[in-house]
Specification:
The complex is a heterodimer of chains A (690) and B (580).
Chain A (H helix, E strand, L loop, with lengths): L2 H5 L5 H13 L3 H5 L2 H22 L6 H37 L6 E5 L8 E5 L8 E5 L8 E11 L1 H4 L5 E4 L6 E2 L4 E11 L7 H10 L7 H35 L7 H11 L2 H20 L2 E3 L2 H9 L2 E5 H5 E12 L5 H12 L5 H14 L6 H4 L2 E3 L7 E6 L2 E6 L1 H9 L7 H12 L3 E7 L2 E12 L3 H10 L3 E5 L4 H11 L3 E3 L4 H13 L4 E5 L5 H6 L2 E5 L4 H6 L2 E3 L6 H39 L17 H25 L8 H33 L4
Parallel strand pairs in A: 9-16, 9-18, 16-17, 18-19, 19-20
Antiparallel strand pairs in A: 1-2, 1-3, 3-7, 4-5, 4-6, 4-7, 8-20, 10-15, 11-12, 12-13, 13-14, 14-15
Helix pairs in contact in A: 2-5, 4-5, 4-9, 5-7, 5-9, 5-10, 5-24, 8-9, 9-23, 9-24, 10-23, 10-24, 11-23, 13-14, 23-24, 23-25, 24-25
Chain B lengths: L1 H29 L7 H15 L9 H25 L15 H12 L9 H4 L2 H31 L9 H26 L11 E9 L5 E6 L5 H10 L20 H25 L3 H28 L2 H5 L23 H14 L14 H12 L10 H20 L5 E2 L2 E2 L2 H27 L1 H6 L4 H16 L14 H30 L16 H34 L3
Antiparallel strand pairs in B: 1-2, 3-4
Classes of the chains: A alpha+beta (690), B mainly alpha (580).
Amino acid sequence: MSDNAKKTKLFDWAIVRPAILDSFCKLSPRRQFRNPVMFVVLVGSVLTSLLFVQAIIGEGEAGPWFILGVSLWLWFTVLFANFAEAMAEGHGRAQADSLRKARKDLVAKKLTNPRRDSSFEMVLASLLKKGDVVLVEAGDYIPIDGEVIEGAASVDESAVTGESAPVIRESGGDRSAVTGGTRVLSDWLVIRVTAESGNTFLDRMIAMVEGAKRQKTPNEIALTILLAALTIVFLVVTATLLPFSYYSVLQAHQGEVVTITVLVALLVCLAPTTIGALLSAIGIAGMSRLSQANVVAMSGRAVEAAGDVDVLLLDKTGTITLGNRQATEFIAADGVSIEDLADAAQLASLADETPEGRSIVVLAKQQYNLRGRDIEKLGAKFIPFSAQTRMSGVDLDSRQIRKGAVDAIEQFVKSRGGVIPDKVRLASQNVAKNGGTPLVVADGAKALGVIHLKDIVKGGIKERFGDLRRMGIKTVMITGDNPMTAAAIAAEAGVDDFLAEATPEAKLELIRRYQAQGHLVAMTGDGTNDAPALAQADVAVAMNTGTQAAKEAGNMVDLDSNPTKLLDIVQIGKQTLMTRGALTTFSIANDVAKYFAIIPAAFALTYPSLNTLNVMGLATPNSAILSAVIFNAIIIVFLIPLALKGVKYRPMPATQLLRKNLLIYGVGGLLVPFIGIKLIDMLLVVLHLV
Amino acid sequence: MTYGIIQIVLFLSVVLLLVKPLGWYMARVYENKPCGLDRILGPVERAIYRLCGVNPTNEMGWKRYTVAMLAFNAAGFFVLYALMLLQGFLPLNPQHFPAVAPDLAFNTAVSFITNTNWQAYGGETTMSYLTQMLGLAVQNFVSAASGMAVLVALIRGFVRRNSQTIGNFWVDLTRSLLYILIPLSLIIAILLASQGVVQTFKPYPTATLVEPVTMADGNSVAEQTIAVGPTASQIAIKQLGTNGGGFFNTNSAHPLENPTPLSNFLEMLAILLIPASLCYTFGKMAGDTKQGWAVLASMVIIFIGLLALCCWSEQKGTPQLISAGADLQPSVTQSGGNMEGKEVRFGIFNSALFATTTTGTSCGAVNSMHDSYTPLGGMVPMWLIQLGEVIFGGVGSGLYGMLAFAILAVFIAGLMVGRTPEYLGKKIETFEMKMASLVILLPICLALIGTAVAVATKAGQAGAFNPGPHGFSEILYAYSSASNNNGSAFAGINCNTPFYNFTLAIAMLGGRYLFKILVLAIAGSLAAKKYVPASAGTLSTSGPMFVILLISVVIVVGALSFIPALALGPIVEHLMMIGR
């Protein structure tokens, strides 16, 4: 998914040209049979073509040119449907092509023993087996998916993710998975192969975006059943019109029995061809919108499930809050000026390279205009954070400045004969209660005050959760923090619930509990310990930076490793379903106008009174029928962009959404064909085609 | 005309007022909770189970339930068929009617077990008292009860979670009869008898005419035989069970079957009472009465709309009546409008209301001749039938048909709001869609194909007495009525022929039993599902938006399926009538 693919225009000639060719290839009856609605249209096209031949010979039921007109437009209807599908596939293929470039046939250095210093032989990547161990050195391409078992290296994964900044891959931990086709920039890695050629991550991605392996999703099948049922009803409606017409002619003693051509035209117009033609395009486009968002779904089913999700489990860090805590406030102890506190805090943090430490320096500079100083010039000695002392700071001249958690500093101060003043204790309690982390600063035996480190909730996230709530989706924050801190952040971010002091077991338990209540749960995860929960969740998005185990357990992989993406995934899922619903409604609503065009045209010779129903004032019976058929065909082309882009979606409650879509696609679908058919009829008359 | 509207408002108000108490009562009955009557009838119920060897706690899966229902109905068919063939040898036959012709007996037996009550015979000239009471009236009760049983099974499908069973058919059947149909029939029968509906075992009396009539052939007739019989008891269940099979040939237009405006009111009330109340029962059992009211609201709105069209068209009359010198203006002394085929004691509004009521439900009793309605006025009853008998519909069958439409509606609506659809907390998936689609498709196809066969064959064409579009309407009406188990007819068609008796019987059987099997399959599949809790993202199925959607789905499906046929029947007839 290079940036080029993302920017591909909807009707790019490079996609349109093969799509046109493909439209003809897709005419094979076997392929058409999969779509009952379009199969009926195909049969109609063949039938009218035969009727045309019969008419040329001179035995026709109607004028040959009329039959030809109807027949041609029926063929166009089928071709347009094929074109829509080919277009959707074309967009997917464009993405697949850029992926495929990464899947060159690579050569691997296969190690005889799983050690860096072992000897190796050169083998083709496609011949590697699961469990083989390979060495990849700076400049080499990683031959195939695997897990780092030794070493650490920076890797360029832009071929897969489109992200140009290199990432670190190392053995152990959550960053051990590597993807075939990416390139090691520096250092070396020893990798154990986890997937064989043809079944690698890249292979699966290519297959998914190409739609080659696409199977109909359950919802698509249910809709196909409904469309097939409607088609059967219309088949019966039109087929029975033949005897009805015969009887009417018998009774009225005038006119002629309706022709097969007209009945076929009526059937095709009534059958839900619009949605029938665009159905598979919508599904493919949904997948491809997802991959444009740099998410790879392992099945179309997962995309649909995403639309149904009603509980989101979100990791606090990285999703709800920025990754790091920041200093936001200094609170001085009695008798200590705030500037002194700021000064001491800054000194203690100058050499502290953690994001928290840096944020203290920045805060001191912004609020109290204290410039950063060079710790070396001051002759100060940096005391780094250690697990034993649980504090960091500097020794400067005779001063020993420390910052750390309340209890750690208390120990430090007490050992020097001091005490923590009540105000400082109270202030740190307040900070904790508000979801912050208090750091106490001490200078020798004297506690100077408190630094308020705060989890910064991402901008706009609260509004997003509000949107989700209105969509009926519950958000649950998962955090390792204690319940008090968690509650404060949960309140600030506006999530509905939280799980504090979360362990992998607690997460899994939580998911099971929600599922037992009938909820569909989505979550993101990257670590190996997330794998059980990922496997249990209905929609599980693994981060691409995560471990192989996490990726295997999830049913989607986010190449950007951005946990907030879950929200986009839900939206894409909903959009896919909505597009189907909207076009189904539109398709059915269209039928009303088509009746008004075709019924008078077909039966006015028998019963001239029926001309009253020709409310559109269409010129002749033939022009009326042709106009309806033409409208029915070209509306497919007009709706291809909608099918590919999906209907607009804004979070709102279901009832409101239904009202809006019913108005647009239901009422719109009722009115549009009246105008469209009339315009086409006028055009046919102007061009003297009827 | 104002009086007419007041009567309609009064009628609908009474129906709606009774919905809640009766609906509540029926919910108690089906949930096997104390309902009041169980204190008296409980021992009877238990005695029945003991006698029949039924274990009332034995739950059935949907397949067993279906088999039980079918077996019971098949047994009913054979008993009824035998009764008709043997009535000449059996007692209670004071008029000494001979055996019913086999094809007619077949048609009639099918017609009564399917709750259709299509009558290709004249009751007072064909059936003995025994056949009427032991055969037809009994089927009036049990066919209604088996419809209610299937509905209750479907409701249980929605209510139960992760369950393999949907109830016990024998229990549902017994309770429907014992606690609901029999007590209500008793009340209605007594009220009807008080209005003069005849109830006797005596042979037909003869009366001397005040003024002898000279017939066309010159013979003078001075005496009239007056048909009587055990009528009130049979009319009560005929209305309550939405059966519609009249004791007399002219059904509720007959002065001894429906003598007064009050008896007319009671008979209409009896038709709507159970189907409307079952909506509340549904809501109550589903744990959210709003769900029931929403479905009922959809029914009422469509009903009022079509009733208005029928009343308007009938009151307006026809240009032909005006040019023939008829006074169409309503006044204190006359109803005005198109009174052909209507009883003077009912007038335009009560005839139109009865017609709409009897065809919206699958009753099929008539107090006026639909064949004589104006084209648009007559199209209303026909289209109500073609909508699938879901505007109140038959007892049980109306609501389960409507719930199939609701499944279709939530499917489309669910897609439009971006969720896979669910109804009452149950996910609607491939299997339910398959069954619901078939449920809706089945009667449409039966009606259209049946009509097509009839108009294309000599035997079929011979039946219609009227030429042109009206003859077509008569045939279309007959097959629509049979396929949807209504049973009313556009008169003017001779359907007591082997062709019609046979083809209409097929339509009735298909429309009833295939339909029921599909519904029970849905019930079984839903019962096995787990429950999905509602959220803001779930489409509410109890709000006005859903009511609008459900109405649209019913109307659109009905319109798209039947517009071409109707265009060649009533629509073109109307256009020709107004001189277009």
